[in-house]
Amino acid sequence: MTAQVDYLVVVFTATSGASGELLGSDEKELEQLVWQLVDVKNKKLGKVNELLIKPDLPDLTEEKEEVEESVEEENRSQADNVSTATSLETAFNLFHLQLTNEVNSAGAGTSVCLCTDGPLHIRQVIHPEAASKNILVPDCFYSFFDLRKEFKKHFPTSDLKALNVHIMADSLPVDVPAMWDPSTTQDPSAILPAGIAVQQVQVMGSIVLALLSEPLSHTFSSQERVSEKFETGTCSKMEKVCDNTVIRARGLPWQSSDQDIARFFRGLNIAKGGAALCLNAQGRRNGEALVRFVSEEHRDLALQRHKHHMGNRYIEVYKASGEDFLKIAGGTSNEVAIFLSREDQIIVRMRGLPFTATHEQVLTFFSPEEDLKEPCPVSGGKDGILFVRYPDGRPTGDAFVLFACEEHAQGALRKHKEILGRRYIELFKSTAAEVQQVLNRYSSAPLISVAPAPLVSMLPQLALLPPPGSMRDCLRLRGLPYTASIEDILTFLGEFTHDIRPHGVHMVLNQQARPSGDCFIQLTSAERAIQASQRLHKHVMSSQRGANSRYVEVFPCSTEEMGLVLMGGSLSHTHTHAHIRSRSGTGLSPPPCLSPPSYSFAPSPVMSAEAAAALYPPIGQMLLAPRPLPPGHAYYPASAQLYMNYAAYYPSPPGSPNTVGFFPSPASLSSPGGLMRMPGLTYNSNGVKDLINAMQGYQYAPEDALMHAHGPLHAHDPTGTLLTQPKEWVCI
User: Fold this and answer.
1) Is there a cis peptide before residue 446, judged by omega within 30 degrees of 0?
2) Do the Cβ atoms of 353 and 399 come closer than 8 Å?
3) pLDDT digit string (tens) for 586-605?
4) In this structure, are residues 388 and 398 in contact, taking their beta carbons and an 8 Å threshold?
5) Which residues have C-beta within 8 Å of that of residue 589, sequence separation ≥ 6?
6) Which of 234, 263, 435, 507 would bridge 652 by S-S if both were Cys, CB 3.0 to 4.6 A apart?
7) CA-CA distance, 80 to 262, in Å (whole number)?
8) DSSP bridge partners of 381
9) How far is the C-alpha of 300 from the C-alpha of 225, rounded, in Å?
């Protein structure tokens, strides 16, 4: 509550676009500003002033001259004082000058406050256009009285949204001439008729006098305020956020900050810390933000700015919920709360830090001793640096740094992509909500609570992964071309293909089911694995499906280490020589985000001689497709909890050169070939290509039973395992 002001300035604006309740919703420019001074103490009205802002038309054109002449002729006779301004900034200066002179000449006081018919004139017209043109708004436009709310105090049954000057004048003892009634307008987006703005101001002045006079004797003391600056702050996940105060903005430039969002919604009051930029799965901004306003009224006005422009981009504005906002901006960490408790600080995000980076190295990075020209000291020293870590304490390579002023922050941002240690560092201006979001993403409960479904749910009864042991009878191939297939791997291995175990080729796929560049090969003996690594290490592999070729690193490893990676472990890029490296130098690292820390595989059943011999039956007993397979080893233990943030690895369907899919055919089948039905295919698969890749290595019918119109298809393939032209045999 404030004391009664000395003067009220009744203000009305008109744009070149919509009027009424849609005023300012179409981003049209301000063209007309009309006001009248009201002496509150003496209950007197001043003269009506009209200020015309010329539209932005090219100079020295006949069209511009005609518009100026027609506008001035239509309105000059209706107002006591008419002025013309060439731009919005000139109009603000002229308005402030004329108002100051009139107040000084009246001599009844100095306190002045604006009064408008609803908030649209100030919040949706004056401030948004000034912000888009980077124009300073006079201080008098940061507070105003809403005539409708003041009227409602004496007439509480009135509908605030339905009120207008015409209805208020009919309810008060005000003599008004016949005038335009906005409620009778059929099209709410219609342009305001000429001369109406002056009539509106005259009637509003009469309404103000009626409210001040007996018997109402109203006191204008509760001003509405427009926030001059966006306040940063923190938000707890336990805080209650009303669903009717949150919006989602979409289409933001990726480099936009919370201050840019506040500038876009200038004129509306955003709650403290109420601008939260959204991040994608990789921790980068995705062009969306959640904004929390102080009330539902401001949220509704924000929705009217749907598809308004920020620079050259239009921004979509939609309703959102309080729960959505808390997911992005809410936090529970005391460390983050203490870090963000320092107000009026500029936050800079560092990305790509070495995992061994310390506070001292970060301080030296921003304020090196030899660079005395542009020091940018970190606010608070070590307390102004927050490293982002995983739940187990490992660094993520991200950090947030506080700076005391904008000048220091801009100096720090100029160090973008400079070197710290052996890595270049990316620097971005950040926000308190982004700090919360990044910390939540890395340090909260697992993003994937249980292991995702394996790519192949039913595997052969033959154990894929033998019991853990110290024998290093497997090979790890690293750096494969992404287009490499099992055939390319077999060609690369050459003579060592004869030593591959049944189902011994394991391609490693990422979470998108694409090749990760890694592969594991199970050989029959450790001696052959060592010989293969010595002979093939860093040899070049070519791909039949692409022109690219890469050298491939070949390391021997154990079954336990292979299983560790196939179960979701990380793929380390550190290794030493194949003969002298220890456990930490095998090219493998234990899974960083797995719980429990290690897996124990159930021992595989001992195969009898008959069962082993069944893997190599005569050619005549082979099927084009294997029979239905009983459940075997699952790729992931059912009880495992997988803590993965951005990457997951899966084993591909296993393969081997000559023996994959060699299962005895049922005795009841007399035909040497057969068909296979594959229900449950994914909708996003690549169709025939995926099916052919899955069937590679399975032997098809004998030469005399499988022919094509163009002749034998596999004369070059005596083992009958490679499908070279198989599309004619696949029906989807």
Assistant:
1) no
2) yes
3) 444 333 332 233 333 344 44
4) yes
5) 569, 570, 571, 572, 574
6) 507
7) 38
8) none
9) 17
